[in-house]
Specification:
The chain has 260 residues and is an alpha+beta fold. Helix content is 27%, strand content 28%. The chain is built from 7 helices and 13 strands. Strands 1, 2, 3, 5, 6, 7, 10 and 11 form an 8-stranded mixed beta sheet that branches. Strands 4-13-12-8-9 form a 5-stranded mixed beta sheet, with no helix packed on it. Helix 1 (4-20) packs across helix 3 (36-52). The longest helix has 17 residues, at 4-20. This is 2-oxo-hepta-3-ene-1,7-dioic acid hydratase. It comes from Rhizobium redzepovicii. Keywords: Lyase. Residues 75-255 form the Fumarylacetoacetase-like C-terminal domain. GO terms for molecular function: 2-oxo-hept-3-ene-1,7-dioate hydratase activity; 2-oxopent-4-enoate hydratase activity.
Length: 260
């Protein structure tokens, strides 16, 4: 464990990296005693500082939802981060590439909560019952620290969250079998990635159930109206200024964005 003073120093360093668009040395190198609990506390301090300046928490993201990514990170469970309103974009947006350091895109589904949901013991059917809408989404991931990164670095860095883009067709959770939503991700007219939502822990709601139970341990939960990014079902694709992105979810709609 590290001290509260060191946690605050790490959070401030990440805030500077975000503002200056320059990655910092990995917190795990600066503070060798950094543990998972410290990392989530740093993330919370970062969010506290951002909301103090006017940003608003609108939801959460879940990462490391595939077994392969968990093994690569030497983890046995997913991780999570916080979504702020100033990082929320709509279909058709023109997004400034220089808002990020090294952005990449992932294909996901976003759940919009229709009621509050708290643990413990939350299961997939509880998530489905509490969800009002599901909508296609893209997550822009970004690193504010140098690489290679330990899992504690990723978590402290808000689980590498950069921004979210929502679009496509708004569906109710029981309207389709959301395990079998397929999508292709095209960059500048070339399909770069494809996948199916069952790749997210077998069911897109599984990670959200995990998140609710995890948040309960720190006195939290999900609130009505919040957005939850359920996890990626494609590999990340590098993006840069000038790129035009199209994510095609078939009958569930599509998302198009450009980076300027």
């Amino acid at each position: 464990m590290i001290t509260e003073q060191e946690r605050r120093a790490a959070a401030n360093a990440l805030l500077r990296a975000e503002t200056d668009r320059k990655p910092i040395v990995q917190p795990s190198k600066t503070y060798p005693g950094l543990e998972l609990e410290d990392a989530y506390n740093i993330q919370a301090l970062w969010a506290e500082a951002r909301t103090a300046k006017g940003a608003r928490v609108v939801g959460h993201k879940i990462g490391l939802t595939s077994r392969a990514m968990q093994m690569a990170s030497k983890m046995t469970e997913p991780d999570y981060g916080i979504i702020l309103d100033d990082a929320l974009y709509n279909d058709g947006a023109q997004i400034k590439a220089d808002l990020f350091i090294k952005p990449r895109l992932e294909v996901e589904l976003a759940f919009v909560m229709g009621e509050d949901l708290e643990g413990p013991g939350t299961r997939i059917y509880d998530v489905m019952r509490a969800t009002e809408f599901v909508v296609p989404a893209l997550e822009i991931i970004d690193y504010r620290t140098e690489v290679p990164r330990a899992i504690t670095d990723t978590i402290a860095d808000n689980a590498a969250f950069g921004a979210i883009v929502v679009g496509g067709r708004i569906i109710r959770p029981m309207d389709i079998d959301i395990r079998w939503v397929g999508a292709t991700l095209s960059k500048n007219g070339i399909i770069e990635e494809s996948g199916v939502s069952a790749a997210i822990m077998g069911h897109p709601a599984a990670g959200i159930a995990w998140l609710v139970n995890k948040l309960q341990r720190v006195g939290g939960g999900l609130k009505k109206g919040q957005i939850v990014l359920a996890g990626s079902f494609t590999r990340p694709v590098d993006i840069a200024q000038g790129d035009v992105i199209q994510a095609d979810y078939g009958p569930v709609g599509s998302i198009g964005v450009s980076f300027v």
